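Journal club prep, notes for RB
We'll compare a predicted complex against what the paper describes. Inputs for the cytidine-5'-monophosphate case:
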Amino acid sequence: MSENRPAVTARAPAKVNLLLQVGPVRDDGFHDLVTVFQAVSLHEDVTVTPAADWGVSVEGAGGTDVSGVPLDGSNLALRAARLLAGRAGVDEPVHLHVRKEVPVAGGMAGGSADAAAALVACDALWGLHTGLDGLAALGAELGSDVPFGLHGRTAVGTGRGEQLVPVLTRGSFHWVFVLDPAGLSTPRVFAECDRRRGPGWTDPGADGRLEAVEAALRGGSAEALAAALSNDLAEAACALAPHLTRTLAAGRDAGALGAVVSGSGPTVALLTDSAAAARDVVAALTPEVGEGRLRTASGPVVGARVLEAVA
Ligand code: C5P
């Protein structure tokens, strides 16, 4: 009987893009990317419990505002669970409880982490043993960042961002994230990027940025990585949310080695060279942005995994 099965909790990480190189728009509407993802220690926990019907509930952890998260069939964790059930021929509904530490619509792939954690939790609950590659293929149907939420650590992403190759890294990197109460729509930021480029834009292709990020990661140098951070969506994000320019400058003024818009924004990622330096940046920024908008985290961390099975 499915109701007698234990609940399973899985945890998946947020990401920051160390490099986000945006190529031309494709026929399917997505853009070809060359990106470097790093998984960081802000997490989503998804608990799945056998239930009479499919459902989802959401809770904000550490002050995360979850008011923008849908609780209907469009919820990404719920879609992930139902997709896996459908493909595996499982007819055992679950209730999903999502505990969110990652900012909503913040450019840190919180929704994708929900999907990744839901896939791992349901796979364990139903005893499917799908494997990482199988779950990643399903995840790619749900969103470009879901496969990375499953893999975690540090990886180069190509295609839509769903084709991943691990990157050699040394040590940990220490981040401060400046959250934005507003949120930005990812499609809107990509569209603004296209609009700013105009119809005559041609892709300059490889320009050494990827190699610079890879060398900094191999060497474990926060200073070199800070110098190599770049994001082709930053200009578009700053055009749609002009205060981000000031946030980036404030982060540098507060002592961060580097500052970059995370993904499509509006979260700003500040790189520091130690956990203590990250705390100093938080202290320096608090009077301007308020402590409630600041989070510290480190990376790389592992991808989605089962946390516990409560008998
Ligand atoms: O795959 P995901 O659902 O995260 O994508 C959200 C939106 O972001 C897409 O509908 C598309 O507008 C944009 N996007 C893109 N190119 C990518 C990834 C996302 O244009 N590689």
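Talking point for the session: The first strand starts at residue 7 and ends at 25.
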